[in-house]
């Protein structure tokens, strides 16, 4: 029996959704990308366990959250894209300062939940358009905060369908990353803040959101910062290096660099993923030639080129 037939049989036994040859365009903030061989949206942990036990070792897979940090190539993804469904969107208070959140909860929602419960430490999440799962993988953050600073533990599942609890002190977090194994799917996180009056938290959120609005573009097809800020003697940020290399007005097909923030690359609505990737590579080369600094990608490129 071929794999697709087996997957079709499996789909009859679950309440979640499985699609074959599924367009990924709406799964990334760039609005780009080909199709996934299989797109799986499990509603429950049990469905995810069953799927991984049956197919985890056969099919390459990639889990996605809100898709605000991934560029999906035009040739699509050969394998399974997993996007967790509704049972992974729970959020609750464990005690006065601790929150338990499903990994598909969007960052802004967690920030608001924390504010409404007078828990501080999550204000920065109001500025990040991803999910808690994506934030854990990327160690997302801004304005001096990142998710690792409030993490207590993660519940995750591996490719064999085994669920594990990982305490924060077992993880080596770094700027926009960690040593967490690439094949883990995060299910939920326990996060700890501190007790602060709601109105003070609200003020902090409003300040962060305003700061973001003033410095970064919105309502566009982008994945935010394209490159990590490099560690270099001059302490220059990626957007400064891109400008210094004379790239800020660069265009490839329908991909261009935001006028408001030179590290934000944008799809004007007509771009292909290839345009964005070509723009990335040209900028990287020019920055290296002009400054001697090698930029590393912050966003992740997945899938196959056409
Ligand atoms: C306008 C804009 C502004 C942004 N500003 C910031 C910012 O200030 N700071 C910042 O850090 N980032 C920023 N980003 C980038 C992005 O929002 C973050 O990286 C975010 O945390 C990604 O979350 P996501 O759910 O969209 O993840 P995705 O883009 O879907 O995936 C990103 C990575 O996380 C992994 N992943 C997602 N969910 C899970 C899971 N459940 N289990 C295991 N792995 C998982 C994916 O496999 C992938 O490797 C910005 C993006 C945009 C578009």
Short description:
The chain is an alpha+beta fold and 306 residues long. Helices cover 26% and strands 28% of the residues.
Can you offer a commentary on this structure?
The chain is α+β, with helices and mostly antiparallel strands and 306 residues long. The chain has three domains: 3-86, 2-Layer Sandwich (Uridine Diphospho-n-acetylenolpyruvylglucosamine Reductase, domain 2); 90-213, Uridine Diphospho-n-acetylenolpyruvylglucosamine Reductase, domain 3 (2-Layer Sandwich); 217-302, UDP-N-acetylenolpyruvoylglucosamine reductase, C-terminal domain (Uridine Diphospho-n-acetylenolpyruvylglucosamine Reductase, domain 1), CATH 3.90.78. The protein contains seven helices and 21 strands. The strands form seven sheets. A five-stranded antiparallel β-sheet has the order 6-7-15-11-12, covered by helices on one side. The chain has a four-stranded mixed β-sheet with strand order 1-2-5-3, with helices on one face. A hairpin with a 2-residue loop joins β6 (91-95) and β7. The longest helix is centred in the C-terminal third of the chain and has 19 residues, at 273-291. Bound molecules: flavin-adenine dinucleotide.
Largest sheet: 5 strands, antiparallel
* Rg for CA atoms: 20 Å
What is the level-2 CATH architecture name of the largest domain?
2-Layer Sandwich
The H/E string reads HEEHEEEEEHEHEEEEEEEEHEHEEEHE
Domains, number: 3
Unreliable residue stretches: none
Bound molecules: flavin-adenine dinucleotide
Helix content: 25-40%
Mean pLDDT: 96
CA distance, first residue to last residue: 29 Å
Secondary structure tally: strands: 21
Which descriptor suits the 3D outline?
A: globular
CATH class division of the largest domain: Alpha Beta
Q: Give the structural class.
A: alpha+beta
Strand composition percent: 25-35%
Determine the CATH topology of the largest domain: Uridine Diphospho-n-acetylenolpyruvylglucosamine Reductase, domain 3
Strand order of the largest sheet: 6-7-15-11-12
């Amino acid at each position: 029996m071929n794999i697709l037939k087996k997957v079709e049989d499996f789909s009859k036994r679950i309440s979640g959704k499985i699609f074959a040859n599924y367009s990924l365009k709406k799964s990334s903030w760039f609005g780009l990308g080909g199709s996934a061989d299989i797109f799986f949206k499990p509603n429950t942990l049990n469905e995810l366990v069953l799927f991984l036990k049956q197919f985890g070792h056969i099919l390459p897979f990639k889990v996605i959250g809100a898709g605000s940090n991934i560029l999906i190539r035009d040739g699509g993804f050969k394998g399974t894209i997993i996007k967790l469904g509704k049972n992974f969107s729970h959020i609750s208070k464990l005690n006065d300062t601790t929150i338990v959140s499903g990994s598909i909860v969007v960052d802004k929602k967690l920030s608001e939940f924390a504010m409404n419960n007078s828990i501080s430490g999550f204000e920065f999440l109001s500025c990040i358009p991803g999910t808690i799962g994506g934030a854990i993988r990327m160690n997302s953050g801004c304005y001096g905060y990142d998710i690792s600073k409030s993490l207590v533990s993660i519940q995750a599942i591996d490719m064999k369908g085994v669920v594990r609890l990982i305490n924060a002190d077992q993880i080596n977090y770094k700027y926009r990353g960690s040593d967490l194994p690439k094949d883990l799917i995060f299910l939920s996180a326990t996060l700890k803040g501190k007790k602060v009056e709601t109105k003070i938290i609200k003020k902090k959120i409003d300040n962060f959101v305003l700061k973001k609005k003033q410095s970064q573009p919105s309502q566009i097809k982008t994945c935010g910062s394209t490159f990590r800020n490099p560690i270099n003697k001059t302490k220059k940020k990626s957007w400064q290096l891109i400008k210094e290399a004379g790239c800020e007005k660069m265009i490839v097909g329908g991909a261009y660099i935001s006028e408001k923030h030179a590290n934000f690359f944008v799809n004007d609505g007509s771009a292909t993923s290839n345009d964005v990737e070509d723009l990335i590579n040209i900028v990287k080369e020019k920055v290296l030639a002009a400054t001697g600094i090698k930029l590393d990608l912050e966003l992740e490129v997945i899938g196959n080129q056409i």
